[in-house]
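RETRY 2/3 - previous attempt timed out on the joint model. Re-submitting the same 789-residue input unchanged.
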Amino acid sequence: MDLATLLPVLWAGVIVFAVVVYVLADGFDLGLGILFPFAGSEADRDRMMNSVAPVWDGNETWLVLGGAGLLAGFPLVYSVVLPAFYLPLIVMLLALVFRGVAFEFRERAPHYKQGWSISFWAGSLVATFAQGVVLGGFVRGVPVEDGVFAGGTFDWLEPFPLFVGLALVFGYALLGAGWTILKTEGEQQAWARRCCRLLLPAVLLAMAAVSLWMPLADEQVAERWFTWPNIAFLWPVPLAVLALSLLHWIALERGWQALPYVSAAALFLTGFFGLGVSLWPYAIPYAVDIWQAAAAPNTQLFALVGFAVMIPIILAYSAWSYWVFRGKVGDEGYH
Amino acid sequence: MEFDALLLSRIQFAFTISFHIVFPAITIGLASYLALLELLWLRTGEARFRDLYRFFSKLFAVCFGMGVVSGVVLSYQIGTNWSGLSQAAGNVMGPLLAYEVLTAFFLEAGFLGVMLFGWDKVGPRLHFLATCMVAVGTLISAFWILSANSWMQTPAGYAFENGEFRATDWLAAVFNPSFPYRLVHMVLAAFLSTSLLVGGIGAWHLLRGREETRTRTMVAMSVLFVAVVAPLQIVAGDLHGLNTREHQPVKVAAMEAHWETQRGAPLILFAWPDESSESNDFVLEIPKLGSLILTHSFDGEVRGLKSFPEDERPPVAIVFWSFRIMVACGLAMLALGWIGAFLFFRRRLYDSRWFHWLAVLASPLGIVAILAGWVTTEVGRQPWVVYGLLRTADALAPLSGSSVALTLAGFVVVYCGVFGAGIWYLLRIAREGPSWAGGPEPEISAPALRLPGE
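RETRY 2/3 succeeded.
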């Protein structure tokens, strides 16, 4: 296999890795924001905020890596997909402004704390929904002509992308509740467990709906999943989803601390795996494959060296930062 | 009504990047200042350094948060609005931006948590390491983003085929001709801006009668730093200008509003450049000085705007005036630094109220200079986005004018509201000042840190 064949495959792995880490990491702090107004008390909200304050910024950096990685590895995808989802992306960016500043502003404005709490909640909710809309629209396919986006401003305004937006809200909220279980105790933890019990069925329903919707809407997806020999390898996927849900439920009932988040994250991974199976090898669904979209081999190679060297280092010191702030979050002050 | 997607996208990018650059400029300066304060505290054990550290880390945290959220916007806007650029130049610029994320953003974010919230979770040496990592991260970030910007200004190490750039020599692309000058000029600008803000805050508290070691330390550190670095910055700016003259002569012609190519060109102090008549109105000039500054010789030749095709000239008046604003700010900084240093060595720095007022008034000068300087260099490279090769107009994404109008309105409302509130909070923290004597002091012990070999 020559370099021009291999590099795009490795790069697809890099992008998927960045997106997966982003979703699992920023997913829980966005989900925390979605659950924010439902917390029992102001002290509970403060604890939730404190539990992610030291790490949210690092989590969001994976989103920037996704963007920059896409530009380096697949400039065509970056140049087609971003204009295609212009409005939802800008809405997402503005929503991230509202929630990102709330971490500091909430503490700086005692008389306006409520306002920044609302800003945190609404920003997290809207950003998540917009991400889901972009994901859903992307999965449905993006029209391309001569390497330029050839669709309209509101192509994403369809039932499927909007549904995926809603599904992602439930999904992130589940991750956020799982994180809250891990970081709190007593009554607040019991509340978070109740949240999980309500959210898990919604997430499962959403996953089932997307899994049926995609093959019904796209013949290529149906063919990918339901023809021999693929089906022989793929039939355990829905089974894995059920097993993980059961695990999540047991973890909730038995009072385990970390497993609710871990099993929710694993549920996300199966969802991603399913998407990957459906979309492979497209870089822009149903228009451009990863080899057509790839940057020049020397560009991909140059940037890949950076990934190979830096990602282990980044994971190491990020893990150290999480380790420093391990355990239950206390009531101590913000700074 | 038909909206012009190109014009609106340009305004949107200018607006979002102008808001953004203010915050990283301050965080670049503050991060290094915090590292210095922590080092001084660890070595001397003096409480004033610890208190200043904790005070400025509050300002740092607010600035950093705003820098992050306004920066994420930019990393996506290159694609959402300028997909022609990302498609044509992604092969070269993509890895530069990816390296920025990998080597800088993660480093800052990974150690920021420990720096801000980790006082009682890690030991003092580890905490100091975290501060240093954040400071180094801000500088690495400046390295890559200025490399990418400079590559667009003075492209190098590339081949241009079928409307796409391909990298042929990464070293040449990263260290392109204008990069070293732009990097030095911008990092010094960030340091100077921060130093002026630190001095302004200290001077304000002196005026309020808080004549304590903390305020005095702020003012003295600021004044001495500005006195040394402002002249260095002028030298760096001059070298940057010579480099621009070599690679982007039309930008320099616009900066100086020189229409005719001439030897012994004057320095135009004041003028109203008129593009329709290709001449200046209301001119106030010093003979020969223009050639002396630009060529370092009294009768050096300076190319005029008329020697460039009309459709390759930048808007003259904006470039001319923004450049003058930047230079005026720089000269004012130099004067402030030297007067302050003079007062310091005459032991009158802390009771010259007039000087404290000057320092307060001068505190935003660095930020103004940074914005004016970027306007000069960015407007001055128009109509090109990749200089001489890709026009800004050809880089536009396929967008409808009305959707850009909508998002621009959104950015203006949200940025003015949210960042306006942020700046208000910053001012409030600055007004409170560090914890004053008698106030509650955090219990942190300072083991005197010894460097190897002591």
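Chain B touches chain A through 74 residues (CB under 8 Å). Closing ticket.
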